[in-house]
Specification:
Blueprint (H helix, E strand, L loop, with lengths): L3 E5 L8 E6 L5 E3 L6 H14 L8 E3 L5 H4 L2 H8 L2 E4 L1 H8 L5 H10 L4 H15 L8 E3 L5 E4 L2 E7 L8 E4 L4 E4 L14 E2 L2 E2 L2 H13 L6 E3 L8 H23 L6 H8 L8 H17 L3 E5 L4 E5 L1
Parallel strand pairs: 3-4, 4-5, 5-6, 10-13
Antiparallel strand pairs: 1-2, 2-3, 7-8, 8-9, 9-10, 11-12, 14-15
Helix pairs in contact: 7-8, 8-10, 9-10
Bound molecules: zinc ion.
Length: 310
């Protein structure tokens, strides 16, 4: 049986997040929200309405590590004895929420992020991470593995791009989709620096959209906003938008040799309140796509990275 959506408030710009509850055994919650008292209050009230005792929760599935979805999970697991299930890349990020901060800051500098902006990004990261609890024992699940939730058999589908290790859970007649597709929002391909360097988040995201298209007949229960009954047109629109933006980035670059941060500021300026980290993430994603197509090249003078049209 389809899980019940539970709307939880968050302290983030994205607004409320969706948790999903399976009432039948094994009683399961997907993405129990951020570590944020109003969210905990809303979750407790919803569980009471559904007749689910906290102690009855056996399993917690996490789609991805972003705090609006996963922040409270470790506390809930510790308090109820529930087992957390998620992808190993998500576990790695929840165990070390700051990741390799030095490597990431060095990379941001090479892309031209000025020091005051870097400090502001750092403060925002600390604020976001204050809504994450430390992680205990977790059951890792890989792409293609199955997990039972509320009597349904869910297949884990690895769909990275918005976050590394992002899982969607494919049920018998629905998909619990996390943040891969959200009605009215194009999810950000968030900049990620792993052990192997910067991940190509936007190319990864496009590949994930293609994976989801194999299940186009199934409605998506997303991490934010309402159910997407017919994902096909939305998936097609995402791909069109990405293509459009890629061409805009190319024409904005023109004949200049530029750093990614400066280019990102032309699209999403700080003075208009845009988040500089997400702006840089997006423009780097399109520069990756343009590089893959052989229309743009990356120049590296040892300290700084520039982009130029070929
Ligand atoms: Zn989210």
């Amino acid at each position: 049986m389809r899980p019940t959506r539970i709307l939880l408030p968050t302290p983030f710009a994205v607004g409320p997040v969706n948790a999903y509850a399976f009432r039948e055994p094994p009683v399961t919650l997907v993405d129990p929200g951020p570590l944020f008292p109003p969210a905990q209050g809303a979750l407790d009230a919803a569980l009471r309405d559904l007749g689910i005792a906290r102690d009855a929760i056996e399993r917690i599935l996490i789609t991805h590590h972003h705090p609006d979805h996963s922040g409270y999970a470790p506390v809930l697991a510790a308090e109820t004895g529930a087992q957390i299930y998620t992808h190993p890349d998500t576990i790695a990020r929840m165990v070390r929420p700051l990741g390799d901060l030095d490597a990431e800051e060095a990379l941001l500098r090479r892309h031209g992020v000025p020091e005051p902006v870097l400090s502001a990004m750092h403060r925002e990261l600390q604020r976001i991470l204050s809504h994450v609890a430390p992680l205990g024992a977790v059951q890792p699940i890989e792409d293609g593995e199955h997990v039972q939730a509320g009597g349904d058999d869910l297949r884990a589908l690895l769909v990275p791009g918005h976050a590394p290790g992002h899982l969607a859970f494919v049920g018998p007649d629905y998909i619990v989709g996390g943040d891969v597709v959200i009605a009215g929002i194009t999810p950000n391909p968030v900049l990620e620096v792993g052990e192997e360097g910067r991940r190509k988040s936007l190319p990864e995201y496009i590949a994930s959209l293609a994976r989801l298209r194999e299940f186009e007949g199934l409605p998506i229960l997303p991490g934010h906003r309402d159910e997407i009954g017919e994902p096909a047109p939305l998936l097609a629109r995402y791909l069109e938008q990405i293509e459009e933006r890629r061409e805009q980035v190319l024409s904005a670059l023109g004949d200049r040799t530029m750093q990614a941060f400066a280019l990102s500021q032309e699209f999403f300026p700080l003075r208009r309140g845009a988040d500089p980290f997400l702006a840089l993430s997006e423009v780097l994603g399109h520069l990756d796509l343009l590089q893959e197509r052989g229309v743009v090249e990356e120049l590296n003078d040892g300290e700084r990275i520039f982009y130029r049209r070929l």
